[in-house]
Amino acid sequence: MAEIEARIRRIIADVERRNPGEREFHQAVTEVAETLAPVLRKYPQYAEYKVIERICEPERQIIFRVPWQDDRGEVHINRGFRVGFNSALGPYKGGLRFHPSVNLGIVKFLGFEQTFKNAITGLPIGGAKGGADFDPKGRSDGEIMRFCQSFMTELYRHLGEFTDVPAGDIGVGQREIGFLFGQYKRITNRYESGVLTGKSPHWGGSLVRKEATGYGVVYFVEEMLKARGESLEGKKCIVSGSGNVAIYAMEKLQMLGATPIACSDSSGVLHDPRGIKLDTVKRIKEVERGRISAYVEAHPRAHYLAAGNIWSLPCDIALPCATQNELDDISARALVANGCIAVAEGANMPTTPAGIRVLLDANIAYGPGKAANAGGVATSALEMQQNASRDAWTFEYTEKRLHEIMQNIHRDCHQTAEEFGCPGNYVVGANILGFLRVAEAMLAFGLV
């Protein structure tokens, strides 16, 4: 076992050496690799054929220039990315993120995580991620359109429903997907609706896709609590973020009898002890595209804390749904001290390694993002199925499929953790489950 652990340390060190400065990517690789020693001991062929080393190297990395012109006529130059990480299980699948923080290391960490997340769903999709260091905040519809058209003018040549199928992520919603698809259709002269997911239901999109990630996180929490003899009924919940994932996580929490009492955005924290009024949040965020601080104008008894820490609020359940590394060890200790019993990640890698250790040591039910927030990409794959069959499913049927997928994800992660000697540890269960599914396909294909 010591020899296997030494091998894994060498793999991690080699990734750090060959990808300098990409801290988030290093973190994602380390978090997965450190759980795989029992797998290599049970299945030595994965070591012999260097499957871990191959999984840690993207199959392709594309970086390109994105020039565009704002409403005043000023020219801007951004950088676009698409990393196809692994296609052993199907075409590349993963979202596009438009945010100033986007760089190659961020996209690689997201693509690496996406590979395992997609495998865990049990659906035939590989892992990828992409985006640009473009900030859509404050931009007009015309500026967003021109940027998306310029972005797709390069990216289109690398896409296809059997090759690579992007979706939305931070900064990329139905509006952006519409502009991207319009340019793809114009350039290729093909109505290849399966080439992008997250589309409007009016032209090929799936009902429930908008709600899927948030709903899926809550379904996963529900299953974690059931495994411990608990339920969501009456639980007080805090949800970081106030974008798509956070909004629909809060909606499903309310449907299942829980009470979301706090959410946030990049400016501060909103706390409404009587329960967040979702109609107001949706109006502010989805219609007005404003700041969450405007909530107190309609509900003056609520509290807004500029630059506050949402994790300091007492709660039963915490859902980090904003961005990577938002929940550190200090905040995790605060959650434990305040009686939190479950944490599930709606964002990608929102908890730091030190924060994860605090939660696991406290025996809190902790759902890592690659399992807990897989509902979004699962419903994207369902959208691909509908596009391929020229079909359209009802909201009820699609949500039923989503619910079943999340239940299966929980069951498979739970059973895998038990099989490898870590009962109740969803980090181990999710990492090993995803790795085994990708690794088996890679071995079957030979050294490619």
Q: What kind of sheet is the major sheet?
A: 7 strands, mixed
CATH classification, class level of the largest domain: Alpha Beta
Helix content: 40-55%
Radius of gyration from CA coordinates: 21 Å
Taking the alpha carbons of the first and last residues, their distance comes to 28 Å
- Give the beta-strand count: 12
Can you give the mean pLDDT?
96
Q: Could you state the CATH homologous superfamily of the largest domain?
A: NAD(P)-binding Rossmann-like Domain
Characterization of the model:
The mean pLDDT is 96. 51% of the residues are buried. Helix 9 crosses helix 10 and helix 10 (244-255) packs antiparallel against helix 11. The protein has three domains: 2-54; 60-191, Rossmann fold; 211-372, Rossmann fold (3-Layer(aba) Sandwich). The chain is of the alpha/beta class. It has helices spanning 2-18, 23-33, 37-42, 45-48, 51-55, 104-120, 141-155, 174-188, 209-227, 244-255, 278-287, 295-298, 329-337, 353-361, 369-372, 375-388, 395-419, 426-445; strands at 60-69, 75-86, 92-98, 127-132, 164-168, 236-240, 259-265, 268-271, 303-306, 317-320, 342-344, 365-367. The chain is globular. The chain is 48% helix and 16% strand.
